[in-house]
Amino acid sequence: MHQNKNDTPGYVKIKNYILDKIKGGEYTVGSKIPTEMELAKMFSVSRVTANKAIAELSVVGILQRIPGKGSFIRDQSFPASVPIASAVPPSKLRLVGNVRLYRLLQLRVIQELSPELTEKIGVKKEPFYEIILASRSEEKIQSLKCIYIPCSLIPDITPSLNYLRSHCIFDYLKVYGAIQPASLKVYANVPPYSFLKSAEELLGSPEGNGVWCITIHAADQKLLSTVFTIYPDNVRNIPLIALTL
Fold first, then answer.
1. Cα–Cα dist 180/216, whole Å
2. According to the model, what pLDDT value does residue 1 have?
3. Looking only at Cα atoms, what is the longest distance across the chain?
4. Using N-to-C axis directions, what is the helix angle for 47-59 and 10-23, rounded to 10°?
5. Residues 124-164 pLDDT 10s
6. Distance of alpha carbon 241 from alpha carbon 239, whole angstroms
7. Cα–Cα distance between 172 and 177 in angstroms, integer?
């Protein structure tokens, strides 16, 4: 049994244990890790604590949780260029074709949006989630999604991030939003806003990128989410959005 040392939280110890096993080669892609009950017993913590550790590793793409079977090590060949920032937050459209699984690169809570972004999406000052997702092709980042969602709409976004990684934002808000989405607007040839620069650098081509923007609205036109999709301008045939009515 692992004994508690210092003041490191139990769930952090479990996460470090799993990551060390991966680094050491004992856990390879597809390996099944111990169950929540087993980890709780190993580290003398509650099952809730063990669940928190597994949930956080699932959110960042280290683990895959399969109901009824357990948690397994994911393929880590996709490059994660940005560290995950901890987030402690106070109709008729559907996705067409194969589901594309995006990799979570960054999650954070912005207490106050930049003036440029505030003007763009026309909202009052309030906390927003900033979520950056990436798709890849041939081991390279193909496009990025920078998603902004009011924290008031989804008080705790962490448990639903896996759904967001594989569904369009409209469907995601239908399932998890406190207000049902009713319409969306799509903007092409979006200007190179300064608040997107850090994300553009992840593509390896900070100059000459194309940007699309989607805004999601409720029936009363209240803004529910804004999504900026960034892609290298010399890359063609990227399915930025695929919807059916």
1. 10
2. 46
3. 58
4. 50
5. 678 888 898 887 655 667 788 899 999 889 888 888 888 88
6. 5
7. 7
Question: What's the angle, vertex CA 193, arms to CA 174 and CA 160, rounded to 5?
Answer: 25
Q: What DSSP line would sit under 171-182, residue for residue? A: HHHHHH-SS---
- Per-residue pLDDT at 85 exceeds 60: no
Rounded CA gap, 17 and 38, in Å? 13
71: left (phi over 0), alpha (psi -120 to 50) or beta: beta
Express each pLDDT in 29-46 by its tens digit: 889 999 999 999 999 999
Q: Is the model more confident about 234 or about 155?
A: 155
Spatial contact of 176 and 160, defined as CB atoms under 8 Å apart = yes
- Rounded Cα distance between 31 and 60, Å, is 17
Q: What is the CA radius of gyration of the chain?
A: 19
3-state secondary structure of 60: coil
Residues 55 and 52: their CA atoms lie apart, in Å, by 5
Stronger pLDDT, 38 or 100, i.e. the higher one = 38
Residue with tokens 């008729």: 92
Expressed in percent and rounded to 5, the helix, strand and coil fractions of the chain are: 25, 25, 45
